[in-house]
Amino acid sequence: MREGSTSRRGRRADAEFQAYVLGVGRRIAYLRGRSGLTQQEAASRAGMELTQWQRLERGRTNPTLQTLFEAARALSTNVIALARPRKDVTENPARPGRPARRTSR
C-alpha cells in the first residue's frame, strides 16, 4: 500500500468514529436543551469557552474523557449518558418541534 493511503477498513473505521462523535455531540445538545441551558451557560458550568462547547455539540472535535466528564457534570448527568448516544434523539430540543440538524458531509 502506498504511503499516506488509507485502506477501506481504515476509512470505514474513521467514518464510524466520526458518526459516533457526531452522535455524542447530538446527545450533549439534546441534554442541554432538555435542561433549559443555553450553550453559554453550559460552557460556563463546564469551564469551557463557548466555541469549544459549540464544536463539542456539532461533533467537530474529538473530546477527551476529561472534556466529557466536565460536560456531563455541567449537564447534571454522567459520562456514560453522553458516551452512549441514543438513536431516537431526533428532535432539536433548543427548537421544539424542529428536527435535529443532519449533516451530509
Question: In words, what does this structure look like?
Answer:
The chain is mainly α. The protein has a domain at 11-83: lambda repressor-like DNA-binding domains (434 Repressor (Amino-terminal Domain), Orthogonal Bundle), CATH 1.10.260. 57% of the residues lie in helices and 0% in strands.
N- and C-termini, Cα separation:
26 Å
Q: Percentage of helical residues?
A: 55-70%
Strand content: under 5%
Number of strands: 0
Give the overall pLDDT as a whole number.
82
Unreliable segments of 5+ consecutive residues: none
Radius of gyration: 15 Å
Considering the protein shown, what is the CATH homologous superfamily of the domain at 11-83? lambda repressor-like DNA-binding domains
Structural class: mainly alpha
Q: At the first level of CATH, what is the class of the domain at 11-83? A: Mainly Alpha
Inertia-based shape = elongated
Number of helices: 5
Q: How is the main sheet built?
A: none
Under CATH, the topology of the domain at 11-83 is which?
434 Repressor (Amino-terminal Domain)
Just name the CATH architecture of the domain at 11-83.
Orthogonal Bundle
**String of helices and strands:** HHHHH
Brief summary:
The protein has helices at residues 8-35, 39-46, 50-58, 65-74, 79-83. It is mainly α and 105 residues long. The chain has a domain at 11-83: 434 Repressor (Amino-terminal Domain) (Orthogonal Bundle), CATH 1.10.260.40.
